[in-house]
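Sequence in, structure out. Go.
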Amino acid sequence: MAERRSQTAVDRIAEAWVDTETRLDLITATYIGRDAGRTAFADYGPAGRAEAREAARAARSELLAAEPADDVDRVTQADLVATLDDSIALEEAGWNARDLNVIESPPQMIRDALDLMPTDGAEDWAAIAARLASIPASLAGYTETLREGMAAANVPARHQVAEVIAQLDRMTADTGFFATFGSDEALGGAVGADLARGRRAAREAYTALREFLASELAPVAGETDGVGRELYALHSRTFLGARIDLDETYEWGMEELARMVAEQEAAAGRVLPGATVREAVAHLEASPDHKLHGTEALRHWMQETSDRAVEELGRAHFDIPDELRTLECLIAPTQEGGVYYTGPTDDFSRPGRMWWSVPAGVTEFETWRELTTVYHEGVPGHHLQIGQAVHNRASLNAWRRLLAGTSGHAEGWALYAERLMDELGYMDDPANRLGMLDAQRFRAARVVLDIGVHLGKPRPGSGGTWDRDYALEFMRSHVNMPDEEIRFEVNRYLGWPGQAPSYKVGQRIWEQIRDEARAREGAEFSLRDFHRRALGLGGVGLDTLRSALSAG
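Output:
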């Protein structure tokens, strides 16, 4: 076991920031397992936002006044200051007053956090009931913040409002989440009664939010989906932890997309000689091979595939601690679509988990399309990356292990991991490789679309500028997925600017950093050692990652 590093002044400030974040935000506390005894969701109102902003400013001042004791401190100081700067800048730009989208705004985050709560007995359900009862106050504050934005003509786009209203309709329906979550009859007694009241209160609060969105916000919502260059640059920097040239990145995205198209066309011919990509996909979809029937078969395949990757990669390519050799694969209780990962708690009492949210009515799954997703979310993707940071207690403070990092670092690593599995021979089956390239093409298309819409770029090869309608047309020409999923994806990008490109741009930066290390070290370069050093830093912004690894 590694010798524990002595705590420094910078460590203490970073640890205190974790305490502050978890005090102010129950969702953050829940994700990292520091939520015991906590019942109230965050105050999303103007007062709560002001408290969070002032806490960030105070922590930033403390950090800048502290003297780093070593290189670990220098990384912590640089990265946490950058993180706080970005959060303050977004708040000052008024983003929180218009923060409504289909995937990562308070209505979704509150509901999603309930999935992580244990449900093993009456005590667990009592905690859930208490949290459900706190939802009305939290959503009331959030509504107040949106009204503040309305008063300043700082509002989300009309399409985002309409899509969230549809989500809330599903959540609050008689067959929706808040009508069916838990069984107060089975629990009985006071806990059952509290659960029934909490569930009813939460459902009524979400219904009230829905009515506010429909009657007050929708009529004044924005007609333009793009957020503009200045606000987009802030989001891009926040999601990457790096400053990039947006125009150069857009042009690179076009080139990368063309490269992915060429690779996929070549792969299609190996699936079915002479076939186009669409013909090869149709051939695979019609074949009984590579198919799973039912969610239990999907869950079993996910688990089996993940366990095999952990065992084999841990022998030859990565250092995988024992605590990370457990990854639970689960079917999510929601039906919104998508696959996601939740990290382990600080003590590993709750392991890392891969969740598959299966849309209603979907009963068939194609492994050729999804194998790369398992590697992305599991090992060597998010589970290895995030779990390794949690495991590094001896050298990293709590902020570095549990909260630091950006989407570009995390999702960029996960796409890097997908490509690495191809390089290691795990995608030699032509069908699986076509699926991997399909995912990579999808992520390249998002770079072009996201920057194109939000910056109002000219459409490639045609007149006019990017807008939502063209974005839908563009995606339909580049991805193989049902139209309802394409619509959800495009709506996600329009309401969450800068996040979707962070995957592919993050992969680009990860690969650049690896190649720079290989060039510096020459014959001494070891890929396993590079991975160990890089993941040993924990979650950091990509500018910090490059600086730390280039410094040795």
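Check: Residues 235-503 form one domain. The chain has 24 helices and five strands.
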